[in-house]
Amino acid sequence: MKLSSGTITISDFIGRMHTNKHFLKLLLVVFLALVTINFNNKMVQADTASQPSLKINNGVLYGFSDGQAQHIGATVVIPSNVTSIANTAFYNQGIGKVDFSSAHNLKSIGDFAFAKNHLSTVNYPNLDDNNLGWYIFYDNAINVVRFANGVTHINDGTFAKNPNLAAVRLPSTITAIGDWSFAGDRLNTIDLTTINDKNDLNVGSGAFYGNQASYVQVLPNNHLNGSGKQPIRWYGYEAFGNNTGQANNIANQYALKHQTYGTGTPGNINSAKSFTYDVQNPTVITGIKSGVTTLGKTIVIPAHVTKIADNAFKSVGIVAVDFSKAAGLKQIGNFAFYDNQISNTLTLPNSLNADISGIGWYAFASNNISTINLPNNNITALNDFVFASNKLTGINLPNTLQSMGDGTFLDNQIKDVTLPSSLQRVGSGSFAGNSFNQQRAIALTAVVNQMPSEKNISAVLYPFGVATPQTNSTIKNRFVRMANGEWQYLNNKGLPLTGQQIVDGHTYYFNPDGTQVKGYSVTFKDGSVHEFDANSGDKLK
Question: What InterPro entries does the record point to (predicted)?
Fold first, then answer.
């Protein structure tokens, strides 16, 4: 409508109001429209109100600068001048959204940068793998993940413990999915076939552990890459573990296990001349000389050796290793004795470094070891997957031990363990895939969740193969389905309810471990017996 440029006096205006009802109606419509526009403008301004001020120094974003403990529901817009987001920058801040659309210069994101928040939708940026931290979006309420074009890596624990995440479409460009990256989510189907079937692919240990997936599709192995070679595929321990139905069959099929060897000829390899050494440092043993037969043999580490290099005796078919002469041995490298036939008792030398450098990750994984004598050296740390996939039925942990890595004793036959009071951290899946009964596993998990590291900044998933919420979970006031299919209700502190409880007008009962009673009766302390519905869990009588 085009308005006249002429002027209207007050008397004319009043006169028209009395004589022209149509004009009055029109004026009322215009007035309401202006009010609505003004109101909407205010709403838009409120929705796009500036976020709490950010602390940025030399391109590094350290979080909010106002010093408040939390910023519930806040939207974080990463500015264009940010090149790096620091470790734990927005850890446990209660933020509801993060926007990377302006972050054109972002090069790296630190560990736990957005962990333990209320994020529901995440746009995952395409950054170099070496610049992506661990557990970036751990423990949120994510239900939608969108990947930027060209993403090749999803780092360790990135989307772990997001129980609302029921589906994810992996980009065709993916070549690596880190350890525990989607553990503890609720993926119904795990589909790797959206990835280019010519890609090399590394699926980390526990990558999809503890979902409710009933179906897994893996990439075919009969396609060649651009060089005419078969792509390299590696699936870590329990990559698809603790799921259901067909997914469990796939988990067993793709479980990381040692290869089958022949018996070979028994004997010792004990001559120092039978081994190879580092050119720069002859006290570092690097492997076996060409032509020396190892199948079925025992390797005797020479007395002058101070270090066993990474991969030194990986997959050579030995049945034992003798450290009795190696009084000066300080370090055993990563994968040093991985994938062999080492059986019976393994006795480690007391000369080894007591810290994490003493024994590398996967050093003795995938063997047949039944007993381990740890070094008597006041050991403080055990590395990731060091003794995974063996035949241990028990382990004595020294009272000097402070830290255990992820999967340290995963996939053995251990029935029970005493955790020393010195222990401050037990890593994800450390004892998963063993022979603990569920009640004991839940009790031990509760102990782990109260350790000092878990009260600060850490992420431990399924240390004993069962799911119990951590005491500092950001999931509150709602039901959570556990990996075994049972349900818990987390209160306003993120802790599971126990006993008889009224939730949204319904009466339920929860066991001491927090699991909801469904389909059976409970005898209360007063002797009364009450039944609970098999489907809803409602109290029937």
Answer: Cell_wall/Cho-bd_repeat, LRR_5, LRR_dom_sf, Surface_bspA-like
